[in-house]
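can u pls check wat happens w/ nicotinamide-adenine-dinucleotide
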Amino acid sequence: MKETVLVTGGAGYIGSHTAVELINAGFDVVIADNLSNSDLQAVEGVRRITGREIPFEQVDCCDREAFKRLFERYEFRSAIHFAASKAVGESVEQPLKYYRNNLTSFLNLVELMRDFHRPNILFSSSCTVYGEPDKQPVTEQTPRKPATSPYGNTKQMCEDILRDSIAAIPEMRGIALRYFNPIGAHPSALIGELPRGVPQNLLPYVTQTAAGIRECLSIFGDDYPTPDGTCIRDYIDVVDLARAHVAALHRMLEKRGTERYEVFNVGTGRGVSVLELVKGFEKANNLKINYRIAPRRAGDIVAIWADPSLANRELGWHAERTLEETLHAAWEWQCHLDRREK
Ligand code: NAD
Ligand code: WQD
């Protein structure tokens, strides 16, 4: 019998890539998503890549009764919880939407996992919990800073809910993966990121500028205290990130690790500036990006990158894809989307 994994938010960007890697690793997957920020085509993409009929349930994780029926229908021991609203700026304008969706869906998940004796929870956390760190690179011991957005606050709160629940439920295990900046797409170009409206994140803005959908990329600030004056991030390929979930899941299923609740950074350990990313994209795809230097964006931190050595050592996971491969895949995905539009 194959081990089944519930993937909430599995029609989304990171969830769909993780579903593929889970199936490649021999798991069965059930995807649950309310499609509030995704499209059924992503599920189709996962089916096409893997050649498998993956069960999809259109469920809102905030709807406890509907969510419960899914627990009654499927025998899984583990859940990966991607379902959440994720736009930092929107969370400042609509905090209640973020507290309602991200907290209610997660509380429902943890309670149902407890009630149905399903022991393993993998939670999508974020490097946003570190705020502006005092020292680079950040380790899991780097203190969390007060959240600078309601979105970030929900990530901190969900980490705490998971830690405290696991402490009180002896059969339960949990891992929070703190993602750095996920970018790229599956090399098949059948799944990738689907930004709604004007992209807020850097790489989707770059690919849309390259495609002529946006006229000009604004680089937010070139007077930061960094070598080229632009901000530094740790850009992690989405396929590498997806594989980190498989490694973390194995750790929980095999009950490795002395602690039942653990946290891991998922990054490359390499800091890349905005200008380096843009130049890298131009080189990887042999094209030019129209960009200008614009004022700093409010709330941006200067620099953050991961120390991923804990995940390297304990999960046996390493980021493998080169930045060039990642930037190439991102462009292939943009071209696929443009063809789909036409
Ligand atoms: P995404 O929006 O593409 O995926 C989230 C999915 O969850 C979407 O398909 C959406 O329809 C679904 N969803 C939202 N609320 C739901 C609900 N109540 N019930 C059922 N489905 C629901 O986002 P993503 O980039 O794939 O992010 C996945 C997770 O990773 C999120 O929790 C996000 O906060 C976290 N994360 C993302 C990033 C990033 O930069 N993309 C970085 C760190 C952490
Ligand atoms: C990266 C860099 C911008 C757009 C966000 C969330 C974080 C996490 C990952 C979920 C910054 C610059 C951007 C543009 C630019 N998500 N930029 N022009 O802000 O590091 O992180 O996504 O958990 O919580 O805050 O990512 O892609 O928005 O920005 O110059 O048009 O690119 O200033 O330096 P960020 P980003």
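Residues 86, 88, 126, 128, 181, 200-202, 205, 217-220, 231, 233, 274, 297, 300 surround WQD (ligand 2) (CB under 6 Å).
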